[in-house]
Amino acid sequence: MHLRYINKLGIPKDIKLTGEPLSIGRSREADIPLLDDKVSRVHCGIRLSDGDFYLKDLKSRNGTFVNGERVEDTVKLKPGDRIQVGSTTFVLDPVSSEEGDLKAFQAVGDKMEDGKGYSTILREIVEDIAPQIGVPKPSEAEAAQSEADAPAEKPKGRPSIKITIPSKTAPPSDGDEPPASGGRKKIIIKR
């Protein structure tokens, strides 16, 4: 199991949980020291017992929370649990971030060996994740958007940009000031 969090400096940390007890607190002697006034000197601890990890609140002043519920004494931890200690949130994950990244890169490499490109792979990832978070698949969203916003005529190709600069020798017209260095520039975008 791994305990992940982001420290006060914004640096992600990934700590492998072993059979050794682990303490979290404001004290420098804590295994995970947190610079936070809401954290007690020795706030809580995590230990392994009979193959499972347990979190014990060590009579902290502001409490320890697991998945939003205050821990009164000891609670059994499971993968995905969110542990709140002061303003720091820890996430319990069975896989380290490096292992997860390695598996993801390997999966992309395998798909590329099968002849898929990055854009195809990314489209598949988005199409897989979109329904899980309540967003329509890109193909459905694009179809709905194009039907709603379909213009009478769709421009073809890229727009052209034309820049005209009046010559420096051209005399100023009635009452106009002479152009500043380089003159006035006129930009026209045509579709």
Strand % is 25-35%
Kindly, what is the distance between the CA atoms of the first and last residues, rounded to a whole number of angstroms? 58 Å
Which sequence of SSEs, written as H and E, runs from N to C? EEEEEEEEEEEHHHEE
Strand tally is: 13
- Assembly context of the chains: single chain
Q: How many helix segments?
A: 3
Mean pLDDT: 75
> Strand arrangement, largest sheet?
2-1-11-10-7-8
Low-confidence stretches: none
Biggest sheet features: 6 strands, antiparallel
By secondary-structure content and strand pairing, the structural class works out as alpha+beta
Shape: elongated
State the helical fraction: 10-25%
**CA gyration radius, whole angstroms:** 30 Å
Structural features, described:
The protein has three helices and 13 strands; from the N terminus they run βββββββββββαααββ. It has 191 residues and is an alpha+beta fold. The longest helix has 17 residues, at 97-113.
Summarize the helices and strands and which ones pair or pack.
Elements: E1 2-6, E2 12-16, E3 22-25, E4 32-33, E5 44-49, E6 52-57, E7 64-66, E8 69-70, E9 74-76, E10 82-85, E11 88-93, H1 97-113, H2 118-129, H3 138-148, E12 160-164, E13 186-190
Parallel strand pairs: 3-4
Antiparallel strand pairs: 1-2, 1-11, 3-5, 5-6, 6-9, 7-8, 7-10, 10-11, 12-13
Spell out the key features of this protein.
six-stranded antiparallel sheet, five-stranded mixed sheet, alpha+beta, single chain, elongated, 21% helix, 191 residues, 13 strands
In short:
With 191 residues, this protein is an alpha+beta fold. 21% of the residues lie in helices and 29% in strands.
